[in-house]
């Protein structure tokens, strides 16, 4: 598993914990690294993702609301919601990662940690987010 892939997995787990606990971002990050070692090269990217999502949460959630027809953000599973936030952040704030990579990685995360329908759902929503971003 590559450093970015491992970083995304760690970031998803931290975002899940962040949302569940309501603790501060730095507290969740520190707690996570005390409990898990992870891929040695993944820590920097994982932290960049978590801080980026936390910093741009309102903006990301607005993008996801606009792209998720018939699904309120609050009704999504916590896994799907946070995978979508990670993907939306990468699409809008990290041009170094190509669109197909972001979508593929998000779908894989959703399949690994979500429900049977999570992969297709995440793919559809993030594809709409990416389309909207490309129009700008």
Description:
With 136 residues, the protein is an all-alpha fold. It has a single domain, classed as Orthogonal Bundle (N-utilizing Substance Protein B Homolog, Chain A). The protein has helices at residues 3-21, 25-35, 43-55, 57-67, 78-93, 99-113, 118-135.
Q: Percent of residues in helical segments?
A: over 70%
The main pleated sheet reads as:
none
Instruction: Compute the number of helices.
Output: 7
On the 0 to 100 scale, the average pLDDT is 93
Total individual domains: 1
The CATH topology comes to: N-utilizing Substance Protein B Homolog, Chain A
CATH class: Mainly Alpha
Provide the succession of SSEs. Answer: HHHHHHH
**CATH homologous superfamily assignment:** NusB-like
Query: Under the CATH scheme, which architecture would be assigned?
Result: Orthogonal Bundle
